[in-house]
What does this fold into?
Amino acid sequence: MTTERMAWTDRDRLQVLSLYCRLTFGQLHRGRPEVIQLAERMGRSVNSVAMKLSNYASLDPEVLALGKKGLSGASQQDRLLWQRFIAEPEAVACECEEAWLSLHGEMEQGEGGWEPDYMGRDVVGLQKRRVGQPLFRKAVMIRYDTRCVITGVRHEDLLIASHIVPWQERPESRLDPANGLCLNALHDRAFDKGLMGIDSEGRIRISRELAESHLNGRLKDQLMDLDGQPLDLPPTTSPNREYLAWHFRECFRQ
It folds into this structure.
């Protein structure tokens, strides 16, 4: 039986924040299956969980950047957690995933627990998924003001939090927001496949392989004409240059 006025604990807030980062703005409602399932496992009403999700949306710069807003009424504890997520995304991501996985009975820990770090983890159930990826995405979207750093496009369904150093290559950097770029789907794919890189001066470089394929029309505009152009970065934010240098050296098909 669900208790309507249960006090919210720190773990409860972390569990809901973890779900928040897995959903898009349009999915934060009482009819969403994930919201219903979380409410059941927490022993709360679906309405209370949906409202808490919408409270987080009211604090989220990504939501505000897209011209949307959540429900006002976030508590002081909600605000403090969100502020800490902005300031220490990797540590809060670990706490969120620990709370989430403990609720779902999937977490495996040593005696020392889960120390805050940039170490993402693979969990194998029916399929392998990347633990911490949703919170990494949220942190990257906030970092880059929910804008593609190449085209400036703003639409949550078209934007991807791209790893600069790939997930498998450097586990300690998997959840580091400075190891991310906000890219649209086309340029994320080109970057991931080494057809696009960022040089030491922060300029976009397109591989010879693409140049020799004689692209024309819209693809030429969207890829080849970018060669030598700078990234479109927010004034106070930039990706980690060491990560970019690693990608340019190890992944870019020059």
Q: What stands out?
A: Confidence is low (pLDDT under 50) at residues 106-116, 124-128. Residues 144-250 form one domain. The chain has two domains: 10-106+125-131, 144-250. Strands lie at 121-124, 128-131, 159-163, 180-184, 196-198, 204-206.
